[in-house]
Design a protein that fits this description.
Structural class: alpha+beta
CATH architecture of the largest domain: 2-Layer Sandwich
Radius of gyration: 30 Å
Order of helices and strands: HEEEH
Shape: elongated
Largest sheet: 3 strands, antiparallel
Number of domains: 2
């Protein structure tokens, strides 16, 4: 094992191998070596599986809802932990704009801003009786 193999410990690797083998005998040393080689093999196989996986490309786009239904799209955002807001739009099955909303929310996380957007969007949809 050289520096090229990733050895960064103190001392010579041969000394460390001798200490490990000395405590466990030849049998213990072989078990350690077999375990390390198995771990290495598993890591290499996982690496190959990752690189050989098929990629699926799916274009992100707005898809209209079924006929006679409406769709609420909303988003919440937070900047610096003290300025947050949320907004959304409701569209029909032909893509027509039925309505929209935007709200200012002070001092909250992005998660809370998203939740406020869901609440406000559903409340707005109920108010306009979709």
């Amino acid at each position: 094992m050289s520096d090229d193999a990733g050895w960064r410990g103190n001392g010579d690797w041969k000394d460390i191998l001798a200490i490990v083998c000395g405590h466990g005998g030849i049998s213990g040393c072989m078990k350690i070596m077999l375990k390390l080689s198995e771990d290495y093999y598993q890591a290499r196989m996982a690496d190959q599986i990752t690189f050989n996986s098929q990629r699926v490309i799916d274009f992100i786009r707005w898809r209209p809802p079924s006929v006679n239904l409406a769709k609420l799209n909303m988003d919440g955002t937070c900047k610096g932990g003290n300025i947050a807001g949320s907004g959304g739009i409701i569209r029909g099955s032909d893509g027509e704009c039925i309505g929209g909303f935007a709200i200012f929310i002070a001092d909250c996380s992005a998660f809370v801003a998203e939740l406020w957007g869901v609440l406000e969007g559903l409340s707005y949809a109920r108010r306009i009786e979709i």
